[in-house]
Amino acid sequence: MKVSAKLKSLRIAPRKVRLTSDLIKGMDVSVAMSQLEVIVKRSNPYFAKLLASAISNGENNFGLDKTNLYISDIIVNAGATLKRSRPRAFGRAGAIMKRTSQVEIILDERVEGKGRKTEAEMEKEKKARLGAQKKEEKELTADKKEDAKVEKVKSKLVETGEKTKKSEKKVGLTSRIFQRKSM
Q: What is the CATH number of the domain that holds 73?
């Protein structure tokens, strides 16, 4: 089963992006990720993020196994070109073309159906993820309530006239003079 992910308007020229795409085409997903970390090209972080997106698309939407995926094809096309100008001699203007790229990664399975999850298993995992999200949200709201209580107590202390340690310090001229170190 083929899975894809797209990246549009990448502000790197297509011929520079193709250098990286030709390197990792046909590799297993894990090997390609390690190659992208090692090789130094400007487009590598974008490729790594796009590849991670394609992997998660395959795992979450179709129940594919990450170890069974490989990069079957990478399509790099030209996007919109930003046209700028630069001053030249005798009042002329020279054209500058700032090119963009559109990248699409297509993943496929090495062995068809190996390690693939059923729809029931995918639903079960989705429910577990939603339950974990709800727990985190409840914890965050509880923390926010505690913070609000602390803020209320602090505001009551200030209103009643009780001074905190920070407000006890004098700010006048004499306090500044006597706090200085003697020479």
A: 3.90.470.10
| pLDDT score, position 12 | 96
Clarify whether residues 112 and 134 are in a common domain.
no
Residue numbers of the domain that contains 170: 126-178
Residue 14 lies in a domain: yes
Instruction: Kindly report whether the global pTM for this prediction surpasses the value 0.90.
Output: no
131 and 174, same domain (yes or no): yes
Q: Are residues 50 and 106 in contact, defined by beta-carbon separation less than 8 angstroms?
A: no
The mean pLDDT value of the chain amounts to 88
End-to-end CA distance of the chain: 80
pLDDT at 167 over 70: no
Statement to judge: residues 69 and 149 lie in one domain:
no
> Does 107 share its domain with 39?
yes
Say if residue 68's pLDDT is above 70: yes
Distances (CA, A) of 181 to 29, 82, 125, 176, 178: 64, 61, 65, 10, 8
The per-residue pLDDT for range 80-130, each reduced to its tens digit, is 999 999 999 999 999 999 999 999 999 999 988 787 888 888 888 888 989
Strand order in the sheet with 69-78: 3-10, 101-109, 69-78
Give every CB contact of residue 85 below 8 A, 6+ residues apart in sequence. 93, 94, 95, 96
Residue 183 lies in a domain: no
Q: How distant is the alpha carbon of residue 6 from its chain centre?
A: 15
